[in-house]
Amino acid sequence: MSDISTTSLPVNPTLSSADQASVEALRRYAIPLQTDDPLDAVLNLVGDASIVLLGEASHGTREFYAMRAQISKRLVSERGFDAIAVEADWPAALRVSRFVQDARPFSSTEQADRTVEQALAGFERFPQWMWRNTEVVAFLEWLREHNGVIAEREQRVGFFGLDLYSLRESMDAVVHYLEKTDPEAAKRARERYACFDHMAEDPQAYGYATTFGGNKGCEAAVVQQLVELTAAAARRNPVKGQPELVDESFYAHQNARVARNAETYYRSMFQGRDESWNVRDTHMAETLSALREHGGRHKGRAAKLIVWAHNSHLGDARATEMGEQGQLNLGELVRQGFPVEDTFLLGFSTHAGSVTAASDWDAPAELKQVKPSLPGSFERLFHDMGLPRFLLPIRGQKTVTTALNGRRLERAIGVIYQPESERLSHYFHADLARQFDAVIHVDQTTALPPLERTPSWHDVAPPETWPSGL
Asked: Is beta strand 305-308 parallel, antiparallel or unpaired with respect to 83-89?
């Protein structure tokens, strides 16, 4: 930890008396961090928790990825955590997991990946930079090296996807698995999944057709396939000493679950944002529970898991205006489903800097300047504390909870950043003290470097009026 003295920091004369009191109180509890801090304080706060959720305030900030990686390395090497679960599709992440665990592909005809960059090739869809970036490459190289000294394959740390966008890829993976293990079952799976015909390549078109086009949909088909795989897994008695057979059965079952929930997700897209959001985060929670159970079967305990996802998924939705409108999220479901001492929710925030983001869906990645945070936001409150970066413990700290002073604006930048409509597009009201157990604030952050640099991604000087000209 840093030896920065918070008592010598200047008072901001523009602050209201209430905000000045909050700033002074938060300074006393904030733990200053250096750029190369070993983050001992974070591990001390995690304690004995076995489900650690590490957020991000944007999908394109280098510091968030780097600090999550540092925390994860220490949880894996010092606390025995078993897997990283990320906001990514199951098939693409599973390919990465095979690489870092040095596990051969299930099919003898498939080539094993030789580099991290090759293993990440499954991330083809927008936004590629979320996982095809320099920080993820460095972390996965470390994870493969860590696993390389572990003799037992089932004890190696995996890397798994929590998301459900991979409708076509997951259906193909189910059929591929069954072709290897039960050709007759594979035939039935192909017939069921044929219900999607060509629409699986454009699942949003499927959702539109089922909502407005009179298409009765394929819900029954994907449910039947999931039920059959579940029953087959229950009947199967894998040969002792071949844990890879248990793993492959689990991976296939998860792909069938993805297909079932993806069908629900795309069918709900045109019924309202809350419905589809809730389907997605409920799927993430189901996947996390399945990983916890499956990953612990060789250890005699539930698996210890680290989650990487956006703050909007990991900060308890009940403390936000979205939750008040009917949305739930993974952080809320984790807190509801597990004892409080088993969970730890860490959020991240920033005041200004740069970010990798697109201007619209499926648009190229750009290096964008992040506007300074709005007055009245948590980010501005943290900026006014005058610390370059710090860890703020929240759980069990009544003074901090009081100083955070209930609801304020909070910023969320996803894969799209539209600074021209920032208040409407990227801010919402929240009670941060109820959202997270702790927060790391990095006042000035930098853009996440993607592996593929588009013409829109290049270092640019900020405009002359930045940061005061809003």
From this structure: parallel
- Position with higher pLDDT, 6 vs 441: 441
The structural architecture, per CATH, of the domain 9-81+306-470 is 3-Layer(aba) Sandwich (3.40)
Q: What is the mean pLDDT of residues 30-51?
A: 96
- At residue 421, what is the residue type? S
3-state helix, strand, coil in the chain (%, to 5): 50, 15, 35
Task: Classify strands 343-357 and 366-370 as parallel, antiparallel or unpaired.
Answer: antiparallel
What's the per-residue H, E or C state across 220-287? HHHHHHHHHHHHHHHHCCCCCCCHHHHHHHHHHHHHHHHHHHHHHHHHHHHHCHHHHHHHHHHHHHHH
Q: What is the pLDDT of residues 184-211, one digit of tens each?
A: 999 999 999 999 987 777 888 888 888 8
**CB under 8 A, 24+ apart: contacts of 18-23:** 18/405, 19/381, 19/384, 21/403, 22/381, 22/403, 22/404, 22/405, 23/381, 23/384, 23/385
Spatial distance between the Cα atoms of 354 and 365, rounded to a whole number of angstroms: 13
31-32/389-393 β-pairing: antiparallel
Query: Which string of b and e fits 207-231 if b means at least 16 CB within 10 Å?
Result: bbbbbeeebebbeebbbebbebbee
Phi and psi (nearest 5°) for 428?
Answer: -150, 165
Q: Which residue has the higher pLDDT, 245 or 397?
A: 397
The pTM is what?
Answer: 0.93
Contact 50, 293 (CB under 8 A): no
Q: Are 429 and 408 in contact (CB under 8 A)?
A: yes
Q: Provide the H-helix boundaries in 272-328.
A: 273-295, 311-314, 321-324
pLDDT band at 11 (very low <50, low <70, confident <90, very high): low
CB 64: neighbour CB atoms within 10 A? 27
CA 154 to centroid of chain Cα atoms: 24
User: Which residue is associated with the tokens 């920033």?
Assistant: 350
Least confident of 41-55, 115-129, 234-248, 380-394: 234-248
**Which of 181, 281, 266 lies closest to 222, judged by CA?**
266
Angle value at C-alpha 16, between 14 and 20, nearest 5 degrees: 90
Contacts (Cβ under 8 Å, ≥6 apart) of 122: 89, 91, 92, 93, 95, 96
Break the chain into its structural domains and give their ranges: 9-81+306-470, 89-162, 164-303
- Look up residue 277 and give its two tokens: 């959001």
pLDDT for residue 298:
77
With a CB cutoff of 8 Å and minimum separation 6, the contacts of 406 are: 431, 433
